[in-house]
Design brief:
The structure is a homodimer. By secondary structure, the first copy, chain A, is α/β, with parallel strands linked by helices. Chain A has helices spanning about 40-50, 55-70, 100-110, 130-140, 155-160, 180-195, 210-220, 245-250, and strands spanning about 15, 50-55, 80-85, 115-120, 145, 170, 200, 225-230, 235-240, 260-265. The first copy, chain A, has two domains: about 15-145, Cobalt-precorrin-4 Transmethylase, domain 1; about 155-265, Tetrapyrrole methylase, C-terminal domain (Methyltransferase, Cobalt-precorrin-4 Transmethylase, Domain 2, 2-Layer Sandwich). The radius of gyration of chain A is 21 Å and the shape is globular. In chain A, helix 1 (about 40-50) crosses helix 2. Chains A and B meet through helix 4, strand 5, helix 5, strand 6 and strand 9 of A and helix 4, strand 5, helix 5, strand 6 and strand 9 of B. Strand 6 (about 170) of chain A pairs antiparallel with strand 6 of chain B.
């Protein structure tokens, strides 16, 4: 008998993993089996929900259709409540200017007792992806947060790299301006050398080739560079070579498939 | 018609994810369903293998028994070839003193044309876990490396934290000596403040409570501290609060369940 007994039991914020195949399959061709990369447990949790907050409502509906084909949705797609996250500010970070009222509106179903799913377009929400602001607001509101296991391109690239997995940093995107990018690569290589820390970055797919060239040209010859392209996809691959060896490769990267770049200075 | 045609086709090195429930279930009690956290695709890949390199042969056999209950093993457990990784040097890092011949012996099945599985006791091999040395040796030998999607306690803790997922660093273990640990926490808080970078660390479970106390006492009051304990387990939880709020909690952490600690300075 506490002062809280007249409050409805709160729902939880469930962080639902998505696949890594967004945009990788041409229109009209069959999508890969969800169960290749997502645990049945995650699909069962997703199939029970009827309230969602998402990066993109259209891709979330497409995801729910794929879930339904494995584990029928408890609430039909047409009756699902899907709200969209506010666009994050340029440059990322959690100090978004989003007003607390916006988060609390999005969290309303959980505050009213319903489990609420948070999902992004690929991988786990809040990891190199929007969603962290809502998760933090949930903690502030005392809502239980439950991350559900699924694929993460960062951690798959790190495992596949053979680089230091005891100390690593993900630093997001590099500058797109050539000179600024070169300087940033030099700084991050220095950090990697000093801390023996693997550095990981991502890039918008259409800039993959430009970033790969900049890395190959800028990094010291003996620095180990990993390129992980389209991990979990049929044509995905992951390769680690000294920068000097990459220079001798006829390097060609697709402009529509996400890639992760990682390096460790000798 | 190249000079390589008389070489047998190489096998691949497949990085097989494990669950995060090692040691969490008392002897004699049923283990959680593998499919709660592992994709069917990962289990099917594991069930086709007959050559393994592992952190621990006993836990790998236990894993294969669990796989067999979902997807029958193509090669009976008694006929599986399971080799154990050399113990990593204290302090981690990829610059192990392991001789190349040791790695090449372990990679022999792949060089002879068989797919080879690498697995650790929990999560993904090579991520806060042994295995990176073998992966790097595989890249050096031109063996294709294929990381398979599965749970990672680090990435689940990060997603669940609501802290900055656009810039984060995992820095392994902190010193166990009190004064050195306090200094390291201060240094890492300074790094977090300067780069607005989430810092993540792990600890041996029996030291969880001591590390939590040190963090709560050392971090600035407004620094956000996440404790993620036993993620993916029934009793798992994940909570983010300002350090000053943690100080007012009657904080009790189990001494046998892995925890992840993360913080972001204001």
């Amino acid at each position: 008998m506490t002062a809280l007994t007249d409050r409805p039991t709160q729902g939880r914020l469930l962080l639902i993993p998505n696949t890594l195949d967004l945009g990788s399959v041409p229109e009209g061709q069959p999508l890969p089996d969800l169960q290749a990369v997502l645990p049945l447990g995650a699909l069962q949790v997703a199939a029970r929900l009827q309230h969602w907050v998402t990066e993109n409502a259209k891709t979330t509906r497409a995801f729910l259709k794929r879930v339904d084909a494995v584990t029928p949705l408890q609430t039909p797609l047409q009756q699902q409540h899907i709200e969209v996250l506010p666009r994050p500010p340029k440059g990322g970070g959690t100090q978004t200017p989003t007003a607390p009222a916006v988060w609390n509106n999005l969290l309303a179903p959980a505050l009213a007792g319903h489990d609420l799913g948070l999902i992004s377009e690929a991988g786990l929400p809040g990891v190199a992806d929007p969603g962290a602001g809502l998760v933090l607001a949930a903690h502030r509101a005392g809502i239980a947060v439950v991350p559900i296991s699924g694929p993460s391109s960062l951690v798959l690239a790190l495992a596949g790299s053979g680089l230091n997995g005891q100390s690593f940093a993900f630093v997001g995107y590099l500058p797109t301006d050539g000179a600024a990018r070169t300087q940033r690569i030099r700084d991050l290589e220095q950090t990697s050398r000093k801390l023996q820390q693997t550095q990981l970055v991502i890039e918008t797919p259409y800039r993959n080739a430009a970033l790969a060239q900049a890395l190959v040209q800028t990094l010291s010859p003996q620095t180990l560079l990993t390129i992980a392209c389209g991990l979990t996809l049929e044509a995905g691959w992951c390769r680690t070579l000294p920068a000097s060896d990459w220079r001798r490769q006829n390097l060609s990267l697709p402009d529509h498939i996400p890639a992760i770049f990682a390096w460790l200075a000798a």
